[in-house]
Amino acid sequence: MAVFPQLRLRRLRRTEALRVLVRENRFDVGDLIYPMFVVEGKSIKQEISSMPGIFHYSPDQLPAEVEEVAGLKLPAVLLFGIPQNKDETGSSAYQSDGVVQKAIRAIKSTVPELLVITDVCLCEYTSHGHCGIVSNDVIDNDRTLPLLAKMALSHVEAGADIVAPSDMMDGRVKVIRETLDKKGYEHIPILSYAAKYASAFYEPFREAAESTPQFGDRRSYQMDPPNVREALREVDQDIAEGADIIMVKPALAYLDVIRKVHDTFNCPLAAYNVSGEYAMVKAACQQGWLDERQVVLETLTAIKRAGADIILTYHAKDVAQWL
Predict the structure, then answer these.
(1) Do the domain assignments include residue 240?
(2) Roughly what angle, to the nearest 10 degrees, separates helices 172-182 and 229-241?
(3) Which of 63, 77, 237, 255 shows the greatest Cβ crowding within 10 Å of its Cβ?
């Protein structure tokens, strides 16, 4: 085996062309999904204070925005809905004229080729802010499942291309898959938030989605951050129940989990570069402490290097312009 001075590893770093030639990991615009927040009303485009550059949109404001997204060659958006009315069962989540259902139709009538993925969870729609039905201050797993399936079905009937359950109830992928199949939507993929951790990095999202729990927290159903083997059990279960794409969330503090899942399962793998990760970069860059372009590209490359095939990120539009 060659050693110095015959071996000089710096030879292949000398110019950008050489570095590109031997680069081991790459990502491009086609790997990115852009999350968006939709609110009831008209003529609304309001910036979210903790997420600079990210907005609440009313459905009538979506056509111009998604035309820009499609023009940047981003393949997909992920929709979160914030309704006007919330109740104990999140009933506005599965109404045919709900905010997400309206948004899907607005997008599909504007850029039908853009993939529309919908978040399937009750937290934005319930008065208590939890992801499922509450019984005696406990999240009732089994009573929640039919409502999640009803929500997913309503999204697909409105034109959604992919549904993405994020609630972390046991068995929800199975129930959603069975419901869609019975209704003739066996062709619709499920992107499962398979390993979703109870993370402190979600705080800006909770402002954006108006989904802060009114009591307790979500640690009884989202995963405990120290656990890795448990993530593999969650992913295995979701694949067995019919998930087509699996996700690890968050991304940056869980690169080891992404790698472990990638090495264990032969299934498309997504990772969510979440709101807190986005907000930290934005805040530091606004202070002039970091170069935003370089930091974001390095971050997304790290997520890709860890094994993610797909990256959900609020930086997607900026990255598409940079690339």
Answers:
(1) yes
(2) 10
(3) 77
Question: Mind listing the pLDDT tens digit for each residue in 89-138?
Answer: 889 999 999 999 999 999 999 999 999 999 999 988 998 877 888 888 88
Strands, DSSP E only, in the chain?
Answer: 32-39, 45-47, 55-57, 76-82, 115-120, 133-135, 138-140, 162-165, 191-196, 245-249, 269-273, 310-313
Helix H, strand E, coil C: the string for 200-262 is HHHHHHHHHHCCCCCCCCCCCCCECCCCCHHHHHHHHHHHHHCCCEEEEECCHHHHHHHHHHH
**The two structure tokens encoding residue 177:** 């898959």
Q: What is the pLDDT of residue 210?
A: 67
Cβ–Cβ < 8 Å for 76, 115: yes
- The Cα 245–Cα 235 span in angstroms is 10
Q: Which amino acid is at 300?
A: L
Residue 3 lies in a domain: no
Cβ pair 176, 120 in contact under 8 A: yes
Angle between helices 255-264 and 229-241 (to 10 degrees): 50
User: What is the number of structural domains in the chain?
Assistant: 1
Hey, what are 49's tokens? 């204070």
Asked, for residue 1, whether it belongs to a domain, the answer is no
Q: What is the pLDDT of residue 1?
A: 82
Tell me the catalytic residues: 196, 249
Write out the residue range of the structural domain in which residue 212 sits. 25-322
Residue 236 to residues 11, 125, 232, 240, 296: CA-CA distances in angstroms?
43, 29, 6, 6, 31
Alpha-carbon gap, residue 204 to 207, rounded angstroms: 5
At 315, is the pLDDT very low, low, confident or very high (cuts 50, 70, 90)?
Answer: very high
Q: Residue 304: its pLDDT value, please? A: 97
Among residues 132, 117, 202, the alpha carbon closest in space to that of 170 is found at 132
**Domain at 211, CATH number:** 3.20.20.70
Non-local (6+) Cβ contacts of 7 within 8 A are none
Q: Say if 15 falls within a structural domain.
A: no
